[in-house]
## 1
Amino acid sequence: MKCLRLVLGDQLSHGITALDGLDPAHDVVMLAEMMAECTYAPHHRQKIALVLSAMRHFAEELRARGITVRYVTLDDPDNCGDLTGEMRRACAALRPERIIVTAPGEMRVLTLMQGLGAACGVPCAIRDDTRFLCGIDEFAAWAQGRSQYRMEFFYREMRRKHRLLMDGDTPLGGRWNFDAENRRGFAPDLTVPPPRRSTPDAVTKTVLDLVAKRFPNHVGALGSFAYPVTAAEAERHFADFLHTRLPEFGDWQDMMSADAPFMFHALVSAPLNLGLLDPLEICRRAEQEYHAGRAPLNAVEGFIRQILGWREFIRGIYWLHMPGYATLNALNAHRNLPGFYWTGDTAMRCMKAAIGQTLDYAYAHHIQRLMITGNFALLAGIDPDQVDEWYLAVYADAYEWVEMPNTRGMALHADGGIVGSKPYAASGAYINRMSNYCRGCAYDVKQATGPNACPFNALYWDFIARHGERFAENPRMAMPVRSWHKMTTDKQRALRARAADLLSHIDQGTKI
C-alpha cells in the first residue's frame, strides 16, 4: 500500500487536499467515528448524528468512485476510541508508506496530527486546508503591524481578491457595507417561509438510533433532525434559501421571533463547516441572484459578508492568537454558567425561547446567540471557559475555530477587544425592539427595578457600573457610562440591588 489518507469528520469535501493525487489502485482513505470526538464536549445529540451520518454518506460516495475506504464505526467492537489509536491499528494492518492528512480546524487536533508520524512509525504529511478563502499565513500577513483587527477592512480586501459585488475597483452600489439597512425591528405581520427540511434516510435513521443508545445523557432532541447529510442535499437546501428567503434576508436578519426560529436565514453554517458546501461557490450563487434581479443588494451583500468576511476573519483570529486566546478573560468573569442554559427552565421568555429552540434543533441564528444567550452571559459575568463549552456543545455548526472567537471575543469581550471594538451589552429594550419575546414574559421589559423587572435591565446597568472605568474612553461605550454617572445615587443603588438579587439566584441555582 502506498498512502493512507485520513479524512476528518468536518472535511467531507471531495476536493480536500488529503485526497489530491489519490491513486485508487494503491491508496486507502480512512474515516473513523471516535468516541473521544463525540465527548470532548457534551455535544448536542443532533450534532453527533449529523457528523456521523455525513461521514457515512461521504464514505459511500468514495466507494462509488472506486476508492478503497477503511471506515471505523462508533459501534465497531475493535474501535480504539481515539484517533491516534485507530491510526496505529490501521497502519499495522495496511502498512502504508506514508500518511496524508489535511490540516484540521482545531488546535487540539493539529497537535494530535503532528504526533501521528511518530506514533504510527510512518511519515505523515499535513497539507493546507484550501477550502477557506483566506489562508492562515495570508491572514497573518494582513494582520501584521495593525494595532486593531477590524473585520470591515479585512472584508474589503476579500471582496477585491475574489471579485465579489465589485464594479471595477469600487463596490457595487457605492458602499462596502449595507448593515445599516439590515436591522429592521420586529414586524408582527411578517410571513416567513419555512426552510427545506430533510427526511432522514436509512443511513441517518441507523445513526439516530445509535446516538440515542450511546448518548442518552447528552442534551438535545433527536426527533426533529432534518439536516442535509450529503453535498447534493445541502445544495438543495441552499437553492431553497436563494429562491424563498434570500430576498428578505437583508431586511430581517437581526429579527427574532418565538414563532419562527429560522426566520430568513440560510442555515448553511452546519453543512458549510462540514465541507458539504463550498464558500466561494455559495457567495457567487448569491451574487448571481442580485444580478438577475431576484434579490436586493442589501440582502446579498449581508449574506456574502457573513461568509466571505466574518467566517474567514474569525478563523484568521483563531489561528493568529491560539493557544493563548483560549485563556483570555479580560473582564475577569468567573461566575458559573446557570443550569438553565442546559434546560431552558427560566421565566425569561427570550432565554427560554432561544435555548429551547437550541435544544430542539441544535440551531439559533447569530443575533439570538450574540444578543440573548451571549448578552446574558456577558452581563452576568459568566466564566468564558464555561460559556465556550456550552456554545461548542449545543450547536450543530460549532467547531472551536469558529465558536471560540465568536463566543470569547464577540459575545463576552473576554479577549479585550481583539475581535470587537466594544462589548455587545444591551438591556431589555433592544430585545423588545428586535423580537416578540417580551410579549407574555413573566418580567416587564419596561421596568428596571423590583421583582417583576426584566433581568436584562438591572444587569445591564450593573455591568456598566462594574466596568465603567474600563470603557469610559471607548467612543462606542462612553454614552452609557456617562448616563450611569448622571443617575441619582438612589437609582444606582436600586439597580445594583436588583442585579445583586438576580446574581445571587444564579449563584444559588434557583430559578429566575
## 2
Amino acid sequence: MTKKAIILLSGGLDSATVLAMMQDHGYAAHALSFSYGQRHSVELDAASKIAAHAGVAEHKVATIDLRLFGGSALTDDIAVPKDRDEASMAEDIPVTYVPARNTIFLSFALAYSEVVGADTIAIGVTALDYSGYPDCRPEYIRAYETMANLATKAGVTGEMPVNIATPLLDMTKAEIIRAGTDLGVDYSLTISCYDPDASGAACGHCDSCMLRRKGFGDAGVADPTRYQPG
C-alpha cells in the first residue's frame, strides 16, 4: 500500500522542498494550503502551481480568517519590517509571527490525515536559519506530536500513530535550496515574500526575501525570484 502524507504547502520555498522530499521518499502527497487572511495571498496561486507541477494526489485549501484576531504584520495593519540584517532579525520574535498559526495549521492537517489515512504530516520548519517563531522549535513539534497521538482515534487505538515530519529542521536555507534543486524543485513557482505586489512580485526587502536571496547566493544557485523594481 502506498504511504500517504499531508504536506503543509504555503507556496514558499521551504514547503515546496518538503513536498519534493516526501515524494522522493515514496509518499503520496496530499497538499494542504490555507487562505487565512494573509496579506501575501498570492502565495495560494503559487501553492496551486507547485501542487500541479508535483502531481500531488490531492490539494485542498482551507479558508479561515485570522484577521479576526490580527496581532501580526501578515494579518493586521502593521508594517512589515524591511532591510534588516540577521542580527536585527534575531533580537526578538518578529511582528510577522502569526499567533498560534502552526498549531492551527497542524490541527487541520491532523483532521485531514485521519480522513485519508495518512500517518505523516510534513511541515517545513527550520531551526537553523533564523525565523524567531516559537512554533518552529523542535520541542514544540515533539509536544504537538505527543498531543496528536492522544487526541485522535487513529493515535489512541494504535491503528495509525501520526508522525510530524520536519525534514528541514537542521538545514540552512542554502542546504534546503541545494537539496530541492537536486530533486527538481522549480523555485520560480514559489514565493516567500511577506509583502508582494498585486502581480506577485517580491518586495526584496522583507526578512523572508532577505533570507531567501542570501540562501540562493550561499547555495551558488541562480535566484529565479521575480522582484519588484528598486
## 3
Amino acid sequence: MSLKKIALMVGTSASTVSRVLNNTSPTCASKELQNKIWKAAREINYHPNENARSLKKPAKASKIFPHISIVLARISSLEEDPFFLELFRDLEVELLKQKASIDNVIYADESFNQNIINSSGVLILGRCSYKLLDKISAQNHNVVGIWRNPMNFNVDEVVCDGKKAAEMAMKYLFSLGHQRIAYIGDCSFERRYVGYCDTLIRNDIPIDYELIKQTKGDADMAFSELLDKKLAGDTDFSAVFCANDNTAIRVLEMLKAKKRKLKQPISVISIDNIEASENTQPYLTTIHIPHREMAHMAVALLLDRIAKEHKEVVRIEFPCKIIERDSCYRLL
C-alpha cells in the first residue's frame, strides 16, 4: 500500500518506486524523480511492510525494528550540499535494507533541543561541536558520526580524512608541474585547508595568502576577484584546488566564461566526487570520498551498538582515491 501511495504522490508507477527505494536500478528514474520519491517516503515514514511479508512465511516471534534519528550538523538543508544529500540518500537505502525506519531528520546547531530519547539510535552527518554532541549523547547513547575528518569524540565514527584527500590532490597537481596553486574553500578548522598548506610547506613552496580565498558557500565572488587579478597581471596561478566539488563546478563555469582571455587553461581539482562532477565541461578531476561505503558501515556500526554487541568506541576510516578526468593539465 505504501509503495502505491508514494507512486500516486509523485506520479509514477509502484514498480519504479520499489526500484528506487531498494536501489536495484540506479538509472530507472531521473534524479529529480528519485528526489521526489525519497521525499515522499520520508513524509509518510515509509518502511517495508513486514506484516504483509510474514503472511508468506512461517509464523515466528514478532521483531521490533529500529527507528533512527538523523542529525544534520553542518548544513541547514540537504539541497545546500550535494555531498551530504548523496550521503543521506545512501543512508536511507541502507536503513531500508535493514528494515529500520527514520524517526526524525533534524537540522541542528548548538541550540539543539529536539527529543530523541525514544529513538533506537542517532546518526550525525557532518562535523559537530562538543556542545552539540553532549546534548545528543545526553539523550541517546547509541550514536555514530559520519564526517570527512576524524573528530576524536567519545562516539563511534566513520570518516574519510579530508587532510589526506587534500594532500593527494596537491601531489597530483605537483606531478603536473604546478606550484602556484590557489585554494578556494573554508579555512576555519578545516583539514582540507591544513592539507593544502602542509603540502606546500613540505615541498618548500611559500604560502601565498593572496591565492587563498575563504568561502563557506558561494564561490563566485571569491574566485571572480582572484581571476580578475590574474587577468590584470596582479597575481598568477596555474591551478585551483577547491575544497569541494560544488565549489569546483562554479569555478569551471567562470573559467569557461573567461576562456578567451586566458593564455593557457587553468587546472581545477577538488574533493568529493559527487554525481554532478561527471557532467561538467571539462569533466572534473576530483578525490573520491566513498560515501556509499561510509553509509553502509555507519548503519552496520549503529545497529551493532544498538544490539549491545560492542561497547568500546570504534573509528572506521575509509581511504580516498583520485578520479582523473579532464580538468587538470600538465604545465607547459
## 4
Amino acid sequence: MFLKKVSNFFSDDIGIDLGTMNTLVYVAGRGIVLEEPSVVALNRDTGKVIAVGTRAKEMLGRNPGNILTVRPMKDGVIANAEVADEMLRYFINKSRARYKLMQPRVLIAVPYGINEVETRAVQDSAKKAGVREVRLVEEPLASAIGVELPVEEPTGNMIVDIGGGTSEVAIISLAHIVEAESVKYGGDMMDEAIKDHMMNHHGLYIGERTSENIKKTIGSAYPVANLRQEMEVRGREVGQLGNSLPRTMTITADEIRTALDRPVEQIIGAVRRTLDKCKAELAGDLIENGIRLSGGGSLLPGLDKRIQEQTGLMTLVATSPLHAVVNGLGEMLKEPSLIFGQPQSMSIGHAYKR
C-alpha cells in the first residue's frame, strides 16, 4: 500500500478513449477530467498547431484559408500520425496534475481487430506524447466494464458500442471477447448520410456541424412519438450552372430517418452476424441478459427498439453511454498491477480476470 501511494505521488495512471469524434481522459483517483473533440487546427503555411479540441472544432466550416482543421482519427484509428501526436500530447498534458514528477502510464482503448500497423501507430503516438508506459484494450471490453456488465462471470453478455468512426459488437464471457465484429459505420457515417441526402434530394450543401445538428434534432432509427417532426436548415444551394447562394428550407423527421437507414442497417447487420456465430449456451444467456447499447450513436432515438424488433432480444441503452469506454478504463486502472505489470503481448482481458 505504501509503495502504491508513493507511485501515485510521482506519476499519473491515465485512461484514454481516443475516438474519431471525441477524446475522453480518465485520471486514476480523479475521474473523467477531459472530454473534447478530436480536432486540431493548423496554420496551413507553417504547419504550427493553433488550437486543439473544443477551440479547434469551433473553427470547422468557419476557418479562413490559412487555417486547416484536421481530424487525425478515422474509423477509430490514427489516420494522421503527426497531428495525432500533437493532439495526444496536448490532451495528456492538460489532464495531468502539475506536481507529478514522472511521465504517466496510459491505457488506451482501440477498436476490436485493428491490425499490427494500426496498433503500432497508437503506441508510437502515445510514446511521442511523453508516455512512460502504454497498454491497449479493445473498446468492447472497456465499454462492457464501463456499463457494469458482469464480464468476469461465465455467462454471455452482448455490448454494442456505437462510436463516431466504428461500431463495435461483442459477446463477452469470463472477461474475454468470445465473438465480435467491428464495422466502419457510426456517428460519422450517419452525418455523411444526411449530407448526401440534402445534396441529392434538395441540392443543398451543408457542413459537418449542420449535419450533426440535424441528426441530434430530428434524426431517428424508428418512429418516435414525441420526436420533433421538422426543422429549418440553412445551407448553400448548388445551381445547375455551378453558382450557389445561401438558402433556408424545412426538412422532416421522416426523410431523415430514411436517410439514416443504410448506416443503421449496417450496424444491425453486425449485431445479427455476431449472434449467428454465437455458441448455443451463450445464446441462451443472451435471451435472459439481452443487448446493451453504448457510445454516442446509441442515443439515436428508436435505435434500441429497431434492434430489439429485428433480433427478438431485449435491448437497452446504457446509463451514461458516452462515457462507457472511458469509465471502463477507469475501473481497470483501479488495479494497475493487473494492467501495467504484465507483458505487452498479454491479453488485457486475461489480466483483468482476477
